[in-house]
Amino acid sequence: MEYFCTEKERKGTCYHEFYKGEWDGRSFWREDSLLLHDDVCTGLKLHELFAAAVPEYESYGNTAVTREAWEKVCLLARETGAEVLDAIMEADEWVQQNFETEDVFYILGL
User: Fold this and answer.
1) Rounded-to-integer distance, Cα 17 and Cα 15, Å
2) pLDDT at residue 91 above 80?
3) Containing domain of residue 8, as a range?
4) How many domains does the chain have?
5) How far apart are CA 2 and CA 86, in angstroms?
């Protein structure tokens, strides 16, 4: 993967964790999570994209993302194009697998 990584590939703690299902309020760095380094998030302005699609988004908090909210993220990424779209599409397979069994996933900020 170019934009995201897994827990095994993580170096440090400057990541936004895509956490499968409901967050339990205490667990981090799960093996089934997808991680986005803050430098990538900032460089591609994904904070702004997430905030536009999910008004409750907090880059340094925890945010529930529903299927409908993710569809908005994808729509805005398509409108933006280029690397933003590439990054979001890289996460999309993980997100779609999550939605096969879960109603939400969480983005856990730094």
Assistant:
1) 6
2) yes
3) 4-108
4) 1
5) 9
